[in-house]
Amino acid sequence: MLFHLDQAPCNIPLILSEIDDAMLSDRLARMGIYAGDFLMRLDEEIHLGPVRIHGPRGHVVLAGGMAAKVIVHHDDGHKTPVLEMLPGETGHVEGLVCGSSLAEGLEILGIRENDNLRMEHRVPPMNYHIRMGNEHFKLTEGMATKIWGEMEGRELQFAMAGRGKPFLVKQLIGGSRALSMLDGFSIAPGKTLYLEAVTPAQPIGHGGRSQIVVGMKTGLRLYLRPDQARRIRVIQKP
Question: Where is the signal peptide (predicted)?
Fold first, then answer.
């Protein structure tokens, strides 16, 4: 029986039949994933929390959704998303499982295919208290990672900004959903933000309910958005 992956049953063997998205098909092929490969849709709860890594541009923080889309070939040979790396693990970027907007955002952070990365640690839930003009509001740590700008002549993410110093927004990173959320706060290139404080936040669920988790026969797990999963057809293994 043929299914779209987002409608496929969980925890039973499946065969990849076809991918109706040229970019996604190409990205998966570059990681050695083709039609005919065995896979399984996994019924798992996941936590998409931000992680801090060291890459070509130094230390950067990836929101959980971004970290799930970057596939790393570890130095010992196995492959995982950055999201699943352990502190101290190293490897190089094997590929990306995302659209062009997020790929461009990752490139701003210095993350491209074949770049070397080292996992530093997971970032706890935090609120960033911000002043922009006469407005005061707060963002989650995940949203703070998606604001790229300049502070004291140095380019960095707002998640790495110093308290009380002017931060000039130069670019917003991420897909359409993230950009829409930042637009709701009127954050845009050319605006100046001031970090007033960073305070602990209460976790609000695991944050990964919309992700389709797929386990490949090799052990690699992929985290796909529902719209990506709808473009993949699978056959239930006889």
Answer: none
